[in-house]
Each structure stands twice: as structure tokens, then as C-alpha cells.
Design a protein that fits this description.
Elements (H helix, E strand, L loop, with lengths): L2 E9 L3 H12 L4 E4 L7 H4 L40 E2 L29 H4 L1 H5 L9 H15 L27 H12 L5 E2 L37 H6 L4 E4 L2 E8 L5 E8 L4 E12 L3 H9 L25 E8 L19 E3 L4 H5 L9 E6 L17 H11 L3 E8 L8 E9 L5 E6 L4 H20 L10 H4 L36 E3 L14 H20 L4
Parallel strand pairs: 1-2, 1-8, 2-5, 3-14, 8-15
Antiparallel strand pairs: 4-10, 6-7, 7-8, 9-12, 10-11, 11-12, 13-14
Length: about 550
Amino acid sequence: MATFDHKVLVVGSGAGGAMAAYTLTKLGHKVLLLEAGRNYEPTKETPMFRRNSEAPLMGAGNKDKNFGFYDATVDGGWQVPNEPYTHAENTDFYWWRARMLGGRTNHWGRYSLRFSEHDFKGKSRDGHGADWPFEYQDIAPWYDKTEDIVGICGTNTDHDDMPPSAPGILQPPPAPRIPELLVAAASKKLGIAAVPMHRAVLTRKKDDRAACFYATPCGHGCSIGAAFQTTTSLLPMAKATGNLEVITDAMVKSVTVNDEGKVTGVTYVNKMSSLAQTIHADVVILAASACESARILLNSKHNKHPKGLANSSGQVGRNLMDSTGAWLGAQIPALKNRPRYNEDGHTANHLFIPWWGHKSHAKGELDFPRGYHFEISSGFRQPGSGVSGDKQGYGSVLKQQVRDAYGSYVGFALRGEMLPNKDSYMEIDNKVKDKWGIPVAKFHFKWSDRELKQIEHGLKTAKQILETMGAKVGELPPAEKAISKGGEIIHEVGTTRMGSSAKESVTNQWGQTWDCDNLFVMDAGVFASNPHKNCTLTIMTLAMRNSTWLAEQIDQGVL
């Protein structure tokens, strides 16, 4: 077993790991980064300008390519060869692994909404879950720094669920599509605002990255760097400092400790040779994703850490949360057979509906805590593999129905906040191991009545908006059937929760584990709650803030 020595070792190259590596290397520190997946170069591998008609099955998804033939996740999915996971009885949970350099940033939706003062102190307001160990004002300047480096398009909206960015930070948003303007008009009649989505897509050139010119779905990847992914931004910028070394195909097995229980590095398996290697480092940062980092900690038992590393609180693996999800759509009569024009934009919705219910919560008018938002699907999209089931006939008659319907559908994807519950957590299944001999994760998951009531409210609201637009919407499905499966939205967080007490959390506000001062977690596992907004922007923001603090500790000789 070979051994090497390094100062800072980062596990994972996605949002948290890449931002930690970028921040530390820019501050002059040598960093070694381990990635469990293969090397990936989007500038060479991205299938830009390819139409669905050029792909097998018209580009449709299958069990090997969940999001379609051109999906930018080359080797990942909810099921990864040689890497099983298990479920407790009556649990349905999907665990997405990217397994490539850049992690999930290669294929995420790139929605980049700030968490607000409502999100960081939810328990103080309604008594549920846990507060974060800092205020919004503590992280606001770091949001500005992150948005500036990443490149976020959008605008300050004055909406109480969308904290403003500093002047000059946001790039201009793309113009709304015609159906989105219709949604905005209909929702306004109900007292609900639709506003520009904030998205990690460049509408203006930035450093070596070009502005988006709306030619390829972002999910294919982006060879010009307009759609943010760490493989075209943070990682190359960190390498340019001369302070970053990257090893791919490195599956971390455990964090190593000495006889006193102090962290000394990690042991990983080279997936190409199946040989184990131990890397020594003064500081270890886990950013492998919420559940993978928790798995590593739970598999790092030692006589000084009998319940797993950094787990004196018993909270590693607990507080597992995912975003809620549901969908409702309909055909809008006013949009049938409308004139054809370019409506591509930056792939996703240009407008969305942020959560509007904070005042209603304060008045006690809602029967569920926290909130949700609506992402809008509409417009002239690239034809796919199927035709909706309301079409009849064949030949020219069927073709005319398809032409009339093209661009006339509007859908609402609900994304909402889940609160932690005692029935949702992950542990180690010591009866099952992956190809490299590492015990796998076992999931327990359950939605509570709070989430089901949220979904019920969301479906009723979406139906109101659609009917205001003139659509015919049938009977709504029960929330139990409409709600997404656990993990299906790919926003799992909370398994190494931060807090202000070592008895109730795994890390402090800096991502530093209470039990091991030279061990940090910098992925979504540290989230104290799971606001309805995509978690990636906040992962990067925390990683930048916490890595800056870590660099100061190293410079002062504390670590």
C-alpha cells in the first residue's frame, strides 16, 4: 500500500469540492483532489448542436441514460454499475451518483436562487427542524462573490423570497417566452408574481467562457463554458495556479486516523487497478455529495470513533431530506396553432413563480410549514420520441393535430421544502459491499403529512393558474401519488448537519467537524434545512466562505 503526503486533501470535484479547491489554491495552498469518477473534458466530449433525430430512440431516456441520449452525465445515474445501495422495507429512494470529474455540475438544472432570512431561521419562526448557525447577513457577501465568479443571469425582483444581489453582480436575464408572459398575467390575477429565474448561464462573456447563444440544451453539457460546470471554470482556474493536483477514478474507502483518533488522511481504491492507497494530509475536506460523504464517515470506524468518524452526536446519516416534487400541465387553447419563431433561450424557464406565502404563514392561514416554487415548462421545444395521448387518427390528420398542438402546452413543476423526520436517514448495510469491498449505503425514507399537504396546496394552485389561462384541467391526483419519490429531485441534503452544538450536529458553521478539528465537510450534507431552492449555489457559497476561513486557520498555524 503506497503512501503520499499532502497539506489539504479534497474528496469530490463537484460544486463543493471544486470551489474549495479553487478558493484554497487561489490563496496559495497546495491541494490534492480525489474524484471517484472518470476524467471528463466537456470542451472535447460535449455533443453540442446534435438534434434528437440524430440519436437512438429520438434521444429518449432509458435505464442507462435517465435524461436522454445526450445527457452530460456520461457514467452516472440512479443506478451505477458495481455500486449498489439498498433500501429498508417500505422505502423507495433513488440515489444519483455522477461518477465523473465535475460531478453533478455537468448536468444540474443551474437554477441559482439564494436562500433567504426565512430559510436560515425556519425553526425560530415555526418550531420545525433546525436553524442554521448563522444569519443571512453573514452569508450575503459570499453569495455576491460566488455569483460573480460563477456568472448568474437574472435580476433583483424585490420579491420577499429572493434576496437582492449587489449592484453589477447579475448578468441580464433572457427575455420571457410568450407562454411565460401568459403565465405571468394569469398568476397576477391570483395575486401571485412570476419573475425572471436566476440561472448559472452566461448571457455576457466572462474570462475564458463565452456567452450562451441558445443553440444546444444545457443538459448536453457546454463546450464553450456558458452553462456553468466546474470542469470549464473552477477546476481549470485552480489548476492554473499551479497548486492543484487531481486524481480521478479514486474511490475513497475511509478517512484514516492515528491512535489518538486524529485525522491523518484517507484510504482510496484505484478503480483501474483495484489497489488501495493511503494518502496522508494535514487537513481533509469531504465534498463527495451528502450521502457519499456520510457513507465515508460511517465506514471510518475506529476505537476512538466507534459509531463512525465525527459521529459522537449520532447525527451522521440522519436528517436526510430531498426536495418535494410534483407536476401538473395542460394545453392552453390560446396557444394552439400559433406562429412559429425562435423560442429556444437558455433551455430552462426564463420566468418562474417564487414562493409567495410568507405573509400567509405569519397569519396562520396555511396548514403546512415552509414553501415551494413553480418552474415553468413551455415553448417550442425540440421534438422528442413521443406524441401525447390525446391525439387520434393517423397520417395527415394526425400530423395536423401535432402541428396545431406544438408549443401550446404549459406545465408547472413544483419544488418544495422537506423537513427532517425520524423515518428518513441513511446507514451502512454491512451485508452488501460494492465492487471495491466498501460497505454500501442503506436508505430509509418517508414523506410526512407536512409535505403531502404542501403538494396538495401546490396542485390546487397550479390548476387555478392553468384554468385562468383557459385550460381544461381534470380531477387532481391525490398528493400521495403525485409527490416524487425520495431522491428523485436529486437535492438530497442534511446527512452531516451543521449547528451550534456538538450534541445535535456534526459540524460547526465552518463545516469543521466537532470531533476532528482537521476534518471538514463542504457539500450539501451540512445543510441544517432544505429550502425549496436548488442547493448548488449555496453549496458553492458555503465552500468559498468556509475554505477562506480554513486558509486563515492554516496561515495562523492553528491547523
